[in-house]
Specification:
The complex is a heterodimer of chains A (112) and B (113). With 112 residues, chain A is mainly β. Chain A has strands at residues 4-7, 10-14, 19-25, 32-38, 45-51, 56-59, 62-67, 72-77, 86-92, 101-102, 106-111. Chain B is mainly β and 113 residues long. The termini of chain B are far apart. The chains are: A mainly beta (112), B mainly beta (113).
Amino acid sequence: GENVEQHPSTLSVQEGDSAVIKCTYSDSASNYFPWYKQELGKRPQLIIDIRSNVGEKKDQRIAVTLNKTAKHFSLHITETQPEDSAVYFCAASKSNTGKLIFGQGTTLQVKP
Amino acid sequence: EAQVTQNPRYLITVTGKKLTVTCSQNMNHEYMSWYRQDPGLGLRQIYYSMNVEVTDKGDVPEGYKVSRKEKRNFPLILESPSPNQTSLYFCASKDVGQYYEQYFGPGTRLTVT
């Protein structure tokens, strides 16, 4: 079945460093890739997304890249801050379906 | 305030005792969905609904039922809960159309003993 693999499961960086989280999807028909951030004890919230007709998208310190040929996409956070500490989930979906497949999550810790 | 609400927020129950977790949204969204979150497994979709009276299975529908009799409500029903359904449950809603953001409820922590 459809699957999204996410790595690493945990990531620890120093404040100011960059963090990269990678996801691979199995269904080549997937064409929408959102990223959610979940702070401790809170609900997931969308932070950025990318559609399959775009290779890269940036929003301030956050960027997402997509390689359709390799079926993988990545989240890049630059100049990390302690408030970036959270669990990050990638996800994939395709047209004409309400299914959204999530990766397993990455716990990011930014050390001051 | 635009929001998705869930009740109860916390529930401890025993095996086999039927329960319902309610989900309501006030954003007039056509799409609603239920997920469960377990450590190391991420969020897994249980059921979703693209519109009133239309529901479809997600990846882990076994042991769950849903109904969508009206647009704002999407209850999750566990007819005979088992310990492996102990989890954190999230309801979500969004506008119809693939690219819209899903808005999540606050979550329901369910423990089945």
